[in-house]
Amino acid sequence: MAATEDVVIEFEAPVETIGSRRLVRFPAQASAALPSRGQVAAEITVNGQEFGTVVEPDGRRGHWLPVDEVRDAVDATVVSVRVEPVKAWPEPVVPEDFAAALDAAPDLAGVWTDITPMARWEWVRWIGATRNPDTRVRRVEVALDKMRSGKRRPCCFDLSSCTDPELARSGKLIEP
C-alpha cells in the first residue's frame, strides 16, 4: 500500500478489554493527526508486528485499533503503535451472509468489484452495525437493492461513529 503522505504516528497506549475483545484507543493527538474522523486505511506496527488494516472511529472524534490477533499484544498491558495512513484500502472481510447474498446475485458481481475497497468497507460496516438479526437480514436485502439501483455506498450512515455492535453503544466506543 502506498502512503497517503509522509505522516507517521507513533504512540504507546494501554490494551483494553471490552467483553472478549482487545483493543487500543488512540491518544487524542494521534487521532487528530489522521486524515479522517472516520475509518482510515493504514499500515500498522504493534510491538514490532506489521500489518495492513483499517483504523476504526470511536464516535468521539477519536480512533481505536483491534489487537485481538496481534500475537505480541495478547498478554501485553501497554503496546507500542506505529501508524502510517495509506491510500490503498485492504479488502474487507465480507460476512458470510452478505457474501452468500452477493454470490446468489450474479448481476451484482461486476458492481461489487467495481466499487472502491473503501466503499466495500462501508457496506460491510453498515450491514454489521446492528445486534438485531432481522435488521441485519433486511440490511443485506437493502444493500443488494441499492447496488442494483446504482448506489455505490450506503446512505444516511455516520462514518465517524463506532459501528461494532459488540463494542459500541449509540455510535460510541464503550468506555472501559
List keywords for this structure.
5 helices; alpha+beta; six-stranded antiparallel β-barrel; 2 domains; 8 strands; 176 residues; Elongation Factor Tu (Ef-tu), domain 3; two-stranded antiparallel ribbon
Task: Compile the SSE list and pairings.
Layout: E1 9-18, E2 21-25, H1 28-33, E3 40-46, E4 49-57, E5 63-66, E6 78-85, H2 96-103, H3 109-114, H4 117-128, H5 133-148, E7 168-169, E8 172-173
Antiparallel strand pairs: 1-2, 1-6, 2-5, 3-4, 3-6, 4-5, 7-8
What's the short story on this structure?
The chain has 176 residues and is an alpha+beta fold.
The helix/strand order is: EEHEEEEHHHHEE
| Count of distinct structural domains | 2
Q: What is the averaged pLDDT score?
A: 91
**Main beta sheet: strand number and arrangement?**
6 strands, antiparallel, barrel
Alpha-carbon distance between the termini?
A: 33 Å
Strand order of the largest sheet: 1-2-5-4-3-6
Q: Could you tell me the radius of gyration in angstroms?
A: 17 Å
Strand fraction equals 25-35%
**Structural class of the secondary structure composition?**
alpha+beta
Q: How many β-strand stretches? A: 8
Which percent bin holds the helix content? 25-40%
Please give a structural write-up.
It is built from 5 helices and 8 strands. It folds into 2 domains: about 10-85, Beta Barrel (Elongation Factor Tu (Ef-tu), domain 3); about 90-170, no CATH class. By secondary structure, the protein is α+β, with helices and mostly antiparallel strands. α2 (about 95-105) runs parallel beside α5 (about 135-150). The strands form 2 sheets. Strands 1-2-5-4-3-6 form a 6-stranded antiparallel β-barrel. Strands 7-8 form a two-stranded antiparallel sheet. The relative contact order is 0.19. InterPro entries: AF2212/PG0164-like_sf, DUF1905. It comes from Gordonia crocea. This is DUF1905 domain-containing protein.
